[in-house]
Amino acid sequence: MRTIYLFITLFIASTGIAQINVRQFENVDLYVKKLGPLPLLNVASIADTLTQNFSDKTLKSRAIFSWIANNIALDPKATRSNDTKNIKPEDVILNRKTTPLGFATLVQEMCSLSDIRCLTVDGYSRFNIDQIGEMPDELNHTWNVIQLNTSPSNWYYVDAAKASGSLDKKFMAFTPSFSDCYFFSEKNIFNFDHFPDNNAWLLGNGSKNAKIFFDLPLIGTGAYNSKLISFFPENGFIRSNTTKAVSFTLKLQYEANISDVSIIIGDGTTQSKPERVNFTSSNGEIKFNYVFKREGEYPFKILANGIMLLTYKIESEED
Questions:
Q1: What is the rounded distance in angstroms from the CA atom of residue 165 to the CA atom of residue 70?
Q2: Could you give the CA distance from residue 90 to residue 86 in angstroms, rounded to a whole number?
Q3: How large is the average pLDDT for residues 120-149?
Q4: What letter would DSSP give residue 83?
Q5: What residues does 276 pair with on adjacent strands?
Q6: Helix axes 2-15, 26-35, angle to 10 degrees
């Protein structure tokens, strides 16, 4: 097993961090999965167990991220009320559930124990269409930045809370669902999905201010998988009517790999089945038109190859 890890480490060192993808981390994730929840160990012992087989800090970071995202749950009640009582790493390990701040604090502590420079970043994210165009009264999310060496360009984003799964619209229930796209994420895509309170931690290009950020559509995991570069309309709230088509443009790095574009209208009991749309693909851009025949206000979700890219809020009236 150690031979496999050595090979991955050498491969990463020779190709550069920008070329890392999920396939190169499969053996790390498998190792973490085999370790299981480690219920009898404290924070330091868990960190040591997770990282002892790796010499490369990227792989150590991945092991820490993978274990936390798979073994810690978002606490709906504490997240809803922004409760900070049980966010210390030892409390998170004991309770096995916490807020995004608790996730980030635990990531930071385990990285520090593993000689990896890691900081927490407070800021904003969006979780449902009601937040489009509506800034909250206080900061609502926390994530991490990890530095691999002294160069300013070698800071990387990590969001173990979002990687662990999702809360429902009212923050009443948590659904676990591991997603690796929040580890060393493409910075510009991460910035469509997060906005820091301190602009020093806006790595790469991003919104100029929080208002612009909250006007954007919601970002799904498909945006990370397809390397979303830009989108139109840029405003997440679209007013339309039941007869006029709205044009959409998605610029994707992996546009050539998209064989299916579909949409979903509504949510809950009013949610429609996925509907395939006719689209054109050229020069890295996917384009399609859609007429919002359903009246009212509702979410409009765009999927590529069955994975959510963007969610807009639509208000459609009869012409």
A1: 9
A2: 9
A3: 95
A4: -
A5: 262
A6: 140
The amino acid sitting at 245 is A
Instruction: Identify the CATH assignment for 228-317 out of 2.60.40.10, 2.102.10.10, 3.30.1360.120, 1.10.460.10.
Output: 2.60.40.10
Instruction: Map out the domains of the chain as residue ranges.
Output: 2-216, 228-317
d(CA 218, CA 302): 10
Asked if domains 2-216 and 228-317 share a fold, the reply is no
- Backbone φ and ψ for 229, nearest 5 degrees, come out as -100, -45
- Give the pair of three-digit tokens for residue 240: 């339309």
- CA–CA dist 307, 225 (Å, integer): 9
Q: What pLDDT sits at residue 255? A: 78
Contact 106, 68 (CB under 8 A): yes
**Is 2-216 a domain of CATH 3.10.620?**
yes
Q: Is the dihedral of CA 212, 216, 220, 224 positive or negative?
A: negative
Q: Is the pLDDT of residue 245 over 60?
A: yes
- Structure token pair of residue 108: 């930071």
pLDDT, tens only, 175-228: 999 999 999 999 999 999 999 999 999 999 999 999 999 999 999 999 999 999
